[in-house]
Amino acid sequence: MIISATSPQVAIIGAGIAGLSCAAALQDAHCQVTLFDKSHGPAGRMSTRQGDGWQCDHGAQYFTARDPGFRAEVARWEQAGVAAQWRPEVRRFDADGTVSRCSATERFVGTPRMTAPATWLASTLELHADSAISALRREKSGWRLHAQDGEPLERHFDVVVLAVPAPQAARLLRDVAPRHAALAAGATMEGCWAMMLQYPAPLALGFDAAFVNRGALRWVARDSAKPGRVGSESWLLHASAEWSEAHIELDGASIAALLLPAFAQLGGPAPERWSAHRWRYAKAAQARDDVCIWDGGQAMGLCGDWLNGGTVEAAWLSGRALAQRICGA
Ligand SMILES: Cc1cc2nc3c(=O)[nH]c(=O)nc-3n(C[C@H](O)[C@H](O)[C@H](O)COP(=O)(O)OP(=O)(O)OC[C@H]3O[C@@H](n4cnc5c(N)ncnc54)[C@H](O)[C@@H]3O)c2cc1C
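A: This is the predicted complex of the input protein with flavin-adenine dinucleotide.
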């Protein structure tokens, strides 16, 4: 590491689970960390839509915890009451009409909503929400970040970390690190249409979630079946990446007209209310296996799910690995 300060100032752009994991590990290693996120709060794609008397996770649905380090982290989350195991009854609907029961896999969710682990992690970190970063500049005294309006922030930072999806990293890196920008630009991310459905009473479909290997849908889940949920019965539909990409520019009403009949084919009745969300960058088409990237010469690092396999667990591991690289571990 070229950073000479005993307590280096680190700017992390992106407060999804990768940025938060990196930030927490760096703070433990006595770095002074500042997170910036363009959204109202942390969590990124581990997100939940909330309305009057209802809620629904519309990004990540659950996470695995296979790596020992991540298992230990999830155990901390469980102890803090911000995550729990989810034991849904899962079906698989195949193209040939077969419906089968899926074997039990260990799945975790945030409680009482998917954003909870991120909110908990962020509570001990310095996070600037509603702070989109539009550009980076390397100056004599360190990294300078520019806000959405193009104005430079006052502070300089010794280290900058980009914990954002690949297309957003590519844009920020174009002028300062063309080689890394090209790598990020080469990581195609696919979209996903999500629909959140509300019902006045629980549906009796005989399953809580299903992998769907036919038609437009790929995953449906009864959000209300997850631990700690309150409010009215809500279901989540995710369309496949191929279907979503082919329909990415449609509006919500057109999407509903196509996806609700697909849900009806699985037994799902018309909802009382619905809303749709377009994820432009849901998952990397081919996830890389770099884990993270650390450029010591520039004092700049990249982390995020697109570098390590496209899951919550992979994103957390990516952030932690980058923190270790920055600290020279
Ligand atoms: C529809 C969908 C379903 C999924 N299902 C699952 C699943 O079931 N299981 C699973 O493990 N994973 C799932 N995933 C993937 C999982 O959500 C991601 O792998 C993980 O959350 C990525 O974390 P991250 O920190 O790398 O990125 P993100 O969560 O995307 O965080 C990046 C953050 O950067 C911020 N940002 C971007 N640009 C800027 C900028 N210029 N300035 C400031 N802030 C910026 C964003 O607001 C965001 O908060 C799913 C994702 C989607 C979208």
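The radius of gyration is 20 Å. The CA atoms of residues 85 and 108 lie 4 Å apart.
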